[in-house]
């Protein structure tokens, strides 16, 4: 690919839309899960019970693993402390490093410490995948990050808040995606002509880039980028020195595409 | 699920992460011994069953059984039969010094130094990358962890240092570096930071952690790496001096300036 700065153009709408196409179906499934959990929680005259809800979630998760071609490495529902207590109805796939002992088709329930008095207890409501969707009420993508507590994998976590009666937060549903697998999916969609195209998350961290100098996980440092990331306006914006870079949000994913001349 | 927010939970998770490669029984044994001696697993705590342990570590049940048997022989766990039975940690900390001293005596100086070189390569580059890749939120999280870390006892300081190094490694965004950091901590963590037995070293370690965070904030990767490597080098040199003292005194005690037995329980 020849790179000539003069040819810099914004990524096409089709390119940006096709990035969103990778994540939107995952969020659609999360919306179905949220809906199911919500309906379970809203049954009149009955108390929510993890022994009932967990098998329901496991069924959904099992189907997700079967259909995902290895992209999904973990999935489930995480309860708000006042709903089922501190509880993760979360399963890991047979593909990832943490479950090598399992057959490739198996899934494994994530064992966690749910007693807040124990030393190794984790208050997950302080973590980004809980905190952000709980605060905004909207879908969120956390990462890429090395999930060393769970799978040791390089991960993107997609989460969606679940409400009872429209207002009471009872938990989040989520899916962990392998960054390795996502890269395979995203790179072909980034062919934005004679420019370097980079997908970043809402913190400016690189998810994937066609610029070999920009590693996944690095922070993209560009004048004006921080301000632009704070602004949800969907329109194209020119960024960087001489406005040679363009910025656009990828639909409602919380990811953005930055295109510009690749550094020589 | 990202990032520990409690000191020690990361290293704890590492104990039950799967093992691979040769010498699994030995690795299971070493990892559990370290965890018990280090106080990550507490006195009186019930270990997972043989089958559960085997499943979590990804080894054969017989391998897990073998490791538990040796732990029993070493008086680090005892097994109760019956409905409330299982294997329980029986280690209140008094013997930690002896156990680590045995290990230090068994290692040659060359091996101790080489461990330092290996660990410096991993932790040094992790720190350098972290300076480039840490966001403001990552730094805030790291500072929160430091604020919560208690450096009052050798155990707490070691756990704190383990958590700190692991968090820094995670900021490198490299899964390989994180795995290697976890492996090195699980296998050698208790030996590597033996120098934290001394209160003066604990204070210094804390100051160095703060300086490392300052280097990350300044996006000064070279400084972050240099701080990390010099901290490891100092710890290794302390080990070699301690080893020399041990050799001189034969098998007599090595208490240094802290003579109190190291408690394994987590401070509140």
From TrEMBL, chain A:
CDD domains for this protein: PDC1_MCP_like
Short name of any one Pfam family annotated for the protein: MCP-like_PDC_1
UniProt-recorded name of the protein: Cache domain-containing protein
Classification of source organism: Bacteria, Bacillati, Actinomycetota, Actinomycetes, Micrococcales
TrEMBL record, chain B:
Matches recorded under InterPro entries: GntR_C, TF_FadR/GntR_C, Tscrpt_reg_HTH_GntR, WH-like_DNA-bd_sf, WH_DNA-bd_sf
Domain (HTH gntR-type): residue spans on this chain: 22-92
Protein name, UniProt field: GntR family transcriptional regulator
Regions annotated as coiled coil: none
Keywords from the UniProt entry: DNA-binding, Transcription, Transcription regulation
Region described as Disordered: 249-268
Residues that span the membrane, as ranges: none
Polar residues compositional bias, start-end: 251-261
PANTHER family: TRANSCRIPTIONAL REGULATOR, GNTR FAMILY, UXU OPERON TRANSCRIPTIONAL REGULATOR
One GO molecular-function entry: DNA-binding transcription factor activity
